[in-house]
């Protein structure tokens, strides 16, 4: 349902992949031909064979490339859903084996896990969805799919997992009230949003709040179906570690952007919406007043975080589970991003519409110090450089 100021959010299905050359087909599983991946001299850790679910998607494909470049052997498991990529999918790097299957297919997952050392689980249905009728699909893709994967990992004796988490588990971010300190405002009302009152207020005194950086110790408060399923994925992973002695890390991604985002599709994030509009010669449409604070992190940095976490798992004890914020650490507003892209692209200026989406939070920005301090990861692409590159880099075509 769309109101005057509200636009229905959309979702991203699991990613898609093209096998690297023709290969024999076994029903729902297709194996690409394999060639040796050159291993660079002196890799930082022993080479691993890593299954990347959703490995043809926007983030997953970048992880695959990073793993291969670092001397590891990635294997892609992907359902090839048209909703993610349209008619064409960039091929994986030479020598990368690809399995075309749904993560909910136990037989296919079991086959894909043969000989695997660790799993990087990216496959998911994302976004707010069109309405609550999408809930069964979200739960099926995200939670049932994760349960199938973990059960087959347990059966195969695979004990290392990096999970694609999300900042949406926090709901609204951190806020400070001058009188009451740290507070957690409730969901914004339709009446306030219709009136253009977008900033949350203190639940006790209704004072204006100061947004801050949310840490991993903040209470979780998922406020839509997608957020609930992402938190459930973490709980499943934690239960799996306790039951099997496995080791898992969840990387709570903030707003990821960069090359390879899908174009002209509702199944993408705000950075892709703005970039697609500019490619059509249109102004980016900025919801609310453009003052929403987010942490925009480049996809290359997210891929590096995944590879760093995979290596770190080898030093963890059995039964361990940890979640890490994965962001740049430098907040920017939605409006700033729209202006940065429009300026670098040379396109029309953004238009602030005042529209809103129920389920969106006003501000959520990450404190990623724990990931830096414990695993030694740090983002390499700053906001200005990343947006300038993204403004002209190709997007993934949609059908």
Radius of gyration: 21 Å
- At CATH level 2, the architecture is 3-Layer(aba) Sandwich
| Mean pLDDT over all positions | 86
Number of domains: 1
Instruction: Give the spatial strand order of the biggest sheet.
Output: 6-5-4-7-9-13-18
The proportion of residues forming helix, as a percent range, comes to: 25-40%
Bulk shape: globular
- Give the terminus-to-terminus CA distance: 25 Å
At the first level of CATH, the class is: Alpha Beta
Number of H- or I-type helical stretches: 11
Tell me what portion of residues adopts beta-strand conformation.
15-25%
CATH topology, by name, is Rossmann fold
Instruction: Note the main sheet.
Output: 7 strands, parallel
Class based on secondary structure composition and strand pairing: alpha/beta
**Count of DSSP E strands?**
21
In the CATH hierarchy, what is the superfamily?
NAD(P)-binding Rossmann-like Domain
Unreliable stretches (pLDDT < 50, length at least 5) are 1-43
Describe the structure in brief.
The chain has 399 residues and is an alpha/beta fold. It is 31% helix and 19% strand. The chain is built from 11 helices and 21 strands.
Layout: helices, strands, pairs:
Elements: E1 11-12, E2 25-26, E3 29-30, E4 49-53, H1 58-69, E5 73-78, H2 82-85, E6 97-100, H3 106-112, E7 118-121, E8 126-127, H4 135-156, E9 160-166, E10 174-177, E11 181-183, H5 190-194, E12 210-214, H6 225-244, E13 247-253, E14 255-257, H7 270-279, E15 285-286, E16 293-294, E17 296-298, H8 299-313, E18 320-326, E19 332-333, H9 334-345, E20 351-352, E21 365-366, H10 369-375, H11 383-390
Helix pairs in contact: 1-8, 4-6, 7-9, 9-11
């Amino acid at each position: 349902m769309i109101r005057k100021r509200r636009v229905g959010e959309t979702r991203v299905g699991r990613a898609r992949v093209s096998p690297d050359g023709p290969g024999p087909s076994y029903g729902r599983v297709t194996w690409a031909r394999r060639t040796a991946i050159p291993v660079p001299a002196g890799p930082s850790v022993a080479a691993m064979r890593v299954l990347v679910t959703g490995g043809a998607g926007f983030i997953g494909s970048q992880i695959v490339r990073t793993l291969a470049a670092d001397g590891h052997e990635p294997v892609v498991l992907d359902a090839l859903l048209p909703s993610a990529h349209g008619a064409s999918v960039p091929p994986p790097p030479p020598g990368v084996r690809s399995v075309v299957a749904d993560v909910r297919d136990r037989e296919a997952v079991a086959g894909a896990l043969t000989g695997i050392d660790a799993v990087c689980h990216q496959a998911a249905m994302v976004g707010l969805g069109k309405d609550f009728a999408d809930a069964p699909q979200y739960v099926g893709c995200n939670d049932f799919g994760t349960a199938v994967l973990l059960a087959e990992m347990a059966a195969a004796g695979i004990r290392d997992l990096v999970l694609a988490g999300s900042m949406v588990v926090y709901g609204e971010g951190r806020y400070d009230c001058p009188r009451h300190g740290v507070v957690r405002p409730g969901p914004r009302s339709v009446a306030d949003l219709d009136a253009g009152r977008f900033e949350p207020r203190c639940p006790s005194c209704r004072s204006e709040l100061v947004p801050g950086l949310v840490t991993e110790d903040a209470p979780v408060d998922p406020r839509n179906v997608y957020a609930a399923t992402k938190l459930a994925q973490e709980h499943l992973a934690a239960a799996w570690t306790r039951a099997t002695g496995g080791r898992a890390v969840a990387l709570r991604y903030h707003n990821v952007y960069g090359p390879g985002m899908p174009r002209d599709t509702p199944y993408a994030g705000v950075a892709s919406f703005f970039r697609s509009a500019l490619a059509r010669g249109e102004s980016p449409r900025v919801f609310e007043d453009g003052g929403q604070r987010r942490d925009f992190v480049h996809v290359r940095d997210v891929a590096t975080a995944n590879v760093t976490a995979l290596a770190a798992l080898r030093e963890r004890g059995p039964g361990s589970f940890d979640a890490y914020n994965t962001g740049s650490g430098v907040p920017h507003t939605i409006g700033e991003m729209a202006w940065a892209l429009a300026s670098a692209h040379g396109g029309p200026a953004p238009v602030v519409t005042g529209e809103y989406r129920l389920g969106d939070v006003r501000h959520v920005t990450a404190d990623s110090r724990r990931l830096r301090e414990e695993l030694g990861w740090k983002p390499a692409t700053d906001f200005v450089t990343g947006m300038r590159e993204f403004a002209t880099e190709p997007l993934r075509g949609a059908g």
